[in-house]
Specification:
Keywords: Membrane, Transmembrane, Transmembrane helix
Number of helices: 7
InterPro entries: DUF2938
Radius of gyration: 17 Å
Helix content: over 70%
Number of strands: 0
Distance between the termini: 10 Å
Shape: globular
Strand content: under 5%
Structural class: mainly alpha
Protein name: DUF2938 domain-containing protein
Pfam families: DUF2938 (PF11158)
Transmembrane segments: 12-29, 70-89, 101-123, 143-160
Length: 165
């Protein structure tokens, strides 16, 4: 197989796998009664962005968009793919073949900037959930979730390295 195609496939699998690990984490939190953002609301926001509206007072109060749940899930996994590609671009393709925890974990932690500084303000929750009833709790939950994503990057890369030729 062409090495570029091989590495691209690995990056895609790492991104999908890490995002799935994050989703298992979120599902577990939900089972424990810890609420989290609905990806349908992410889809609603993206649908409004496509229409030129970036900022909302509260995304849940904004008009629904067609297929927002599917759109939100697609964006969620697309971002996971993009983050995996960025990790490999920063770490080098050698990381795919000999994955180590620290680059993946550090990268996962850094990705928490996306919800805290972009998504939450744009959706009406303020920077770092400052406009919510429990900003610190929400920030810690985001931090934990993105840390889990970083662990997912590493674990998925290790599994792929051990199972794919």
């Amino acid at each position: 197989m062409n090495p570029l195609l091989h590495d691209t496939a690995r990056i895609a699998l790492v991104g999908l796998g890490a995002t799935a690990v994050m989703d298992v984490w979120l599902w577990g939190l939900k089972r424990l009664g810890v609420p989290s953002l609905s990806f349908a609301l992410v889809g609603r926001w993206v649908g409004h962005v496509a229409q030129g509206r970036w900022w909302h007072d509260g995304i849940a109060k904004s008009a629904p968009v067609r297929h927002e749940a599917a759109l939100g899930w697609a964006v969620h996994y697309g971002v996971g793919l993009a983050f995996a590609a960025l990790l490999v671009a920063m770490s080098g393709t050698a990381w795919l073949h000999q994955p180590t925890l620290w680059p993946a974990l550090a990268f996962g932690v850094v990705t928490v900037a996306m919800p805290l500084l972009v998504m939450q303000p744009a959706m009406g929750a303020g920077i770092a959930s400052s406009k919510t009833a429990a900003p610190l709790k929400n920030c810690l939950k985001s931090f934990a979730t993105h840390t889990v994503f970083g662990v997912g990057l590493f674990v998925t890369a290790v599994l792929i390295e051990r199972t794919l030729p």
